[in-house]
Amino acid sequence: MEREISAGENLEAWFTKNGRDLPWRRDRNPWAVLVSEMMLQQTQVERVVSRWPRFLRRFPNPTAMAARPVAEVIDEWAGLGYNRRAVNLHRCASAIVERFDGVVPSSPDDLQSLPGIGPYTARAVAVFAFESQEAVVDTNVARILARVHNRALSGGEAQRLADQWARGRDPWVWNQALIDVGALFCRPGHAACELCPLHERCRWRAVRTSAPDPAVGSAGVSGRQSKFEGSDRQGRGRLVKALRRCEVAAGDLASTMGWPEDPERAERVAGTLLADGLVELVDGRYQLPG
């Protein structure tokens, strides 16, 4: 039965005709691919489409980025969410320059050794830049795997099944195709099973009107994000946005972060930004790092 489910002959043909035309899919430059993968973490594809080319014009390679202050990377990251990813990308660029002579490494192990690069991103860069024979499991693919097998999976199981499914196939096409199926059809909530090129292989499709969604709680499948309005994340974002314009005096911290009546909260949350390397406190004034 496992082999029957693993037979996805229709998927590659579907992707060849219907895959999304995304700009980073036309570029095998490893640095460009790495930047796209960092941007796509919890950021809408449409937003990345418009920002990725501009970002690469400013930082066309690891050496160019490492030579600039991290504040410039944070500035260019505006609107892409989770500013600490900008700091991680700058650290990653610096490590590539220091350890790999400015050349993005090709092996998942070397990639994962870089700051801010986890197992998924390492595999994704290896596949999408170097066509390494790997399987990538993002939240879309994890959801597909759980539904196709109609059971919640551990992280290890999901990766093992993805590896088995991808074996012997074109790694670039296969992985991109699965990501598109998850983004377009096998979505959270109401799945468009009748349009999905994998619907004949999906065990959950046959019982979904009466069975719970196995993707809920399955490893690697993202859940609903906590409310942003009034959250610490909102205060963090307000401070970084203000610092893109000018320094902020410590006495103005609470009002800048939107909590004028709660300076203790403002200091606590600002402390997380300091710990993440997103801001510096110099002579009683907050600023972006140099």
Q: What's the overall geometry?
A: globular
E-strand count: 3
- Provide the gyration radius in Å: 21 Å
The CATH homologous superfamily of the largest domain: Hypothetical protein, domain 2
What is the H-and-E element order?
HHHHHHHHHHHHHHEHHEE
CATH topology of the largest domain, by name, is: Endonuclease III, domain 1
Largest sheet: 3 strands, antiparallel
Report the top-level CATH class of the largest domain.
Mainly Alpha
List segments where confidence is low: pLDDT < 50 over at least 5 consecutive residues.
1-7
Report the total helices: 16
The span between the termini is 57 Å
Short description:
The chain has helices at 2-6, 9-18, 30-40, 45-58, 62-66, 70-76, 84-100, 108-112, 119-130, 139-149, 155-166, 171-184, 203-207, 232-243, 253-256, 263-275; strands at residues 248-249, 280-282, 285-287. It is mostly helical and 290 residues long. It has a 3-stranded antiparallel β-sheet with strand order 1-3-2.
